[in-house]
Amino acid sequence: MLIQNFSDLATSSLKKNTLKILESGLTASMPENILPKYISKKEIKIDKTSFKFSDYSNIYTVAFGKAAGSMTRAINAIVPIKAGIVVIPKGSKSKIIGKRFQIFNSGHPKPNQTSIKAAKEVIKFLQNRRKSELVIFLVSGGSSALLALPEKITLSDKIHVTDLLLKSGATIQEFKDLVKYGR
Fold this sequence. Notes:
Blueprint: H1 6-9, H2 13-28, H3 31-34, E1 43-46, E2 49-52, E3 58-64, H4 68-76, E4 83-89, E5 101-106, H5 113-127, E6 133-139, H6 143-146, H7 155-168, H8 172-181
Parallel strand pairs: 3-4, 3-6, 4-5
Antiparallel strand pairs: 1-2
């Protein structure tokens, strides 16, 4: 069970049924249950386009967000990934073990110095790839704080603005619009 305190919470039949529905939704959304619909040992299929792994000399991943570790673990179980970068929130335990993956525990919901370091490492990692190599990006929630490379403002300014937006109750869409339109 994903809900570890299920029996403590299921104090009535209504609560038990609600928790079962939640458990079912959580299980269905796990990367190991979703990614095999799009990725096989031979290829990735996105809509009507497929990328055959045999066309590439190496396969890498760059994963960032709250589900980055579990997404990387799920895809690595299907496809032989040569190496990659995984950026997860500070305080999260990495689901990836091994020297092939560079792990960053960055700030979330506010960026920190590790967020900048991780962003620079991703850029450097990508610049070192050849055209014959495939990089699979795995992106989930929290990415805007986990990978931060502010331009024309300091990290302190970005943290301050993020803090103000969080305290104001701004939605994630309002955060995105602010970043997109520079307001």
